[in-house]
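Colleagues,

For the teaching module next term, I've prepared a clean inverse folding example: a structure given as tokens, and then the sequence designed for it. I'd like students to try predicting residues themselves before seeing the answer, so please don't circulate the second half yet.
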């Protein structure tokens, strides 16, 4: 295995470990790091409020787990 191949393997395995630690859940993968200020862990489809972080599925890409 060449030096470049070993380097790519190390970078890839480190990135994969971070994804597994931060984003992987029981049924799928989260769409945003839970430590991010926009993270909202649930998605309520019928929320028609004026809360721009939750209303009308706005937070669909801000944390809920995708199956």
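(Answer key — instructors only)
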């Amino acid at each position: 295995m060449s030096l470049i191949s070993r380097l790519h393997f190390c970078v890839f395995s480190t990135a994969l470990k971070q994804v597994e630690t931060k984003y992987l859940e029981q049924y799928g993968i989260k769409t945003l790091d839970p430590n991010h200020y926009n993270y909202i862990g649930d998605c309520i489809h019928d929320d028609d409020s004026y809360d721009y972080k939750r209303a009308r599925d706005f937070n669909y890409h801000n944390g809920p787990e995708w199956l």
